[in-house]
Design a protein that fits this description.
about 400 residues, mainly alpha, Amino acid/polyamine transporter I, about 80% helix, globular
């Protein structure tokens, strides 16, 4: 395998393994290990399918074409506007989730300032100022710090697994769901955990439009997170009974609550501390990648309307809305990921299906076509639209709410 192909696969894996992974135990505590694995595999198959649709699209596009350009090719200015708007809203939701999650972790290391709520707000402000500064300075600074943090994150993850897996109880793994409908409620949050589709244009450009290499990168790059997620679920579900998990998370439904739950169940401060470190690193690396994407998307949007904003102004536009969300909704990590899942479902499922459907009509003889035909496109579309409406069904009381 060529280095570029392997490197692209690792970029897919690195983009995917992040903050969304941390929300999995929070949202699957009442589902049980068995159904959680079923959900993971089903969503992996769905998002692999949708990513390969982009590979199909790039057979008939320039190697440096962005997703907005692809949408404009098949649906004109309307397609570009809608795809760009959804992308920016999606990235705002993700950055909001990561600032909210980061504040709960940073707050655990700070002394109490007036009260817990004030401490959380100060933590959110510190998280945004420190790591947002790398975005404003430039991509090179993000690259340097991200390499260091990503390497440390992988080492921390392996250490967490080594500490937790020997304490796994098969009795915990065999517990049945407290409500089968929770698997539906959790789907938008799990859905974002396989999200790397915004990076596909960059990967295609890096691979010089080699769609075969892009296909291999996607298949390998998404398989690595699937294995990591299954091991993560095995570790967390295996050491925590549903009763213990739900009782602790009911008091603190945040990432800090997850670390507290693991520490209490294993009676090990070392394990709890290691989980906190891994959680913080996963959030930071996800935050850096997503925030950089949002910063550049806003810069490109302003340039299109002839507004030349400086990096400081772009930084304020990038970080003030997510920071406000974290300050006034400090426990909104899971909720923000759920609504990000709505935007991502459109961006990663509905949009590529719509473009491929039209492209197949215009160019029926292209060499590569994702298997399944029109039937697979329709099934994937129905699932994607359903994931979009799940949070509304939950808010209406038609589906149970997940923890958080």
């Amino acid at each position: 395998m060529k280095n570029k192909t392997l490197g692209s696969a690792l970029i897919v894996a690195g983009t995917t393994i992040g903050g969304g992974m941390l929300a999995m135990p929070l949202t699957s505590a009442g589902i049980g290990f068995g159904l959680t694995i079923v959900l993971l595999i089903a969503l992996w198959l769905l998002l692999c399918f949708s990513a390969l649709l982009f590979v199909e699209l790039y057979q008939n596009a320039d190697s440096d074409a962005g997703i907005g350009t692809l949408a404009e090719k098949y649906y004109g200015t309307f397609g570009r506007v809608i795809s760009t708007a959804v992308l920016i809203i999606f990235l705002y939701a993700l950055v909001s989730a990561y600032v909210s999650g980061g504040s709960s972790i940073i707050a655990a290391f700070l002394p109490t300032i007036v009260d817990a709520e004030t401490t959380s707000r100060v933590a959110g402000l510190l998280f945004t100022l420190v790591f947002g500064a790398f975005i404003i300075i430039g991509t090179s600074s993000v690259d340097v710090v991200n390499r260091l943090l990503f390497t440390t994150k992988i080492l921390a993850f392996l250490l967490v697994l080594c500490l937790l897996l020997p304490k796994v109880s098969f009795e915990n793994l065999l517990e049945i769901p407290i409500d089968n409908a929770l698997i539906i409620s959790a789907s938008p949050i799990f859905f974002t955990s396989f999200g790397f589709h915004g990076s596909i244009p960059s990967l295609n450009k890096y691979l010089d439009g080699n769609v075969k290499a892009l296909r291999i990168s996607i298949l390998i790059g998404t398989s690595i997170p699937l294995v990591a997620y299954i091991l993560w679920q095995l570790a967390t579900h295996g050491v925590l009974s549903q009763g213990e998990f739900l009782a602790i998370l009911d008091k603190d439904p945040t990432l800090n609550g997850l670390a507290t739950a693991v520490s209490a169940a294993t009676d090990s401060a070392i394990i709890g501390g290691t989980v906190r470190i891994f959680s913080a690193l996963a959030l930071i690396t996800s935050f850096l990648g997503v925030a950089l994407g949002l910063f550049e998307a806003l810069e490109d949007l302003l340039k299109r309307v002839n507004i030349n904003a400086g990096r400081a102004s772009l930084g304020l536009l990038t970080f003030l809305p997510p920071l406000a969300f974290a300050l006034f909704y400090p426990q909104g990590f899971v909720a923000a990921l759920g609504y990000a899942g709505q935007m991502f479902a459109f961006y990663a499922i509905v949009l590529p299906i719509a473009m491929v459907w039209k492209m197949r009509q215009q160019f029926p003889d292209l060499a590569y076509r994702v298997k399944g035909g029109s039937t697979a496109l329709i099934i994937a579309l129905v699932i994607g639209v359903f994931i979009v409406i799940v949070p509304f069904l939950t808010e209406a009381g038609l589906l149970p709410k997940v923890v958080g």
